Amino acid sequence: MSYGNRPPSPRQPSGRRLDPRVYRRRRIAAVVVLSVIVAGGYVVGSALFGSSDNGVAAQHTPSTVNVVHDGTTPTTLEPTTTTALKPKPRTTPSRANPAELMIFGDSDAGAFGPYLKQLMDQTGIVSTKLDYKTSSGLARPDFFDWPTHMHQALPAVNPDIVVVTFGGNDAQALRNADRTWAVAHAPGTGRNDADWKAEYGKRVGEVMDYLGGDNRTLIWVGIPNAASDATTARLKVQDTVVRSEAAKRPKKVVYIDTWTRFSGRNNGYGEYVIDPRDGVGKDVRAKDGFHLNVTGAEILALDIAEAVRTELRARGAKL
What CATH number has the domain bearing residue 141? Predict the structure, then answer.
């Protein structure tokens, strides 16, 4: 078979030109098909990549922090695309308009947070979000940058009340986000701690100013002492700095004195504390000689819950 001498198509005989009317119809059909393809491609592209008012594709990166919404199930809190917050109107909490409570912090927040949420749920006028990251704090933004995360996560909720705590992970040398040293020594080890206090105080103060602004109430939960004298010496410096920064902001910050709450005789280490729920002395410490066990965390949650209720009443809630 010779492919070089293929016979002409019966619909387009060789040597004849198309009728002008047929040609125009084909051109119109081609334009319509092309328009549909382009329009379809735009819709698909917008769905896949997103868009913004200035034509730049929107980018959205979820957080990797541990977040518990219901007190039991870790999930991922999606930060908003903006870190700007409008001052929230100060309203009266009610069942129809519950107060938004947000809890930030390390594993200590993860310990007392679920029971605090349970206590707040019982009021019927509080909606609680728990956002924590184990082994984190303000000392090591190279590990987890809490200020940056807060500026992303807080606008997603825009809470009325914020509870925050950072425990024993901060009583160490202080790094910057780029892993350089801000202060290359731990506090409470016999050196002059002026530089450590100044840097840590700056970090704490900035967090307090952000979380306690725009008609929000900030409840800062302090840390307990430890069984080890050396560890307690480091924690004492941290606790002193936080107390000092809170005292500078009496209208912004409510401080929970965890140190005194869980101290024994002569303000020393306390292994047992009276449980206010039944008046019975109970072991409240974990085996590591610092953290609170489940009972201790629940007792601390009771103290925090009372501070939250006080704020709710100040906002006009009937409890």
Answer: 3.40.50.1110
| H-only helix segments in 50-162 | 107-123, 146-157
Q: Give residue 144's Cα distance to chain centre.
A: 11
Question: At 139, is the secondary structure helix, strand, or coil?
Answer: coil
In the chain, what is the straight-line distance between the N-terminal and C-terminal CA atoms, in Å? 97
Q: pLDDT tens digits, residue range 115-137?
A: 999 999 999 999 999 999 999 99
**Residue for token digits 């840590």?**
200
Q: What is the pTM (predicted TM-score) of this model?
A: 0.76
The encoded tokens of residue 18 equal 């198309």
Number of domains in the chain: 2
Q: What is the DSSP letter of 314?
A: H
The per-residue pLDDT for range 188-199, each reduced to its tens digit, is 999 999 999 999
Alpha-carbon distances, residue 71 vs 32, 68, 117, 121 (angstroms)? 56, 5, 7, 11
For residue 131, give its domain range: 66-314
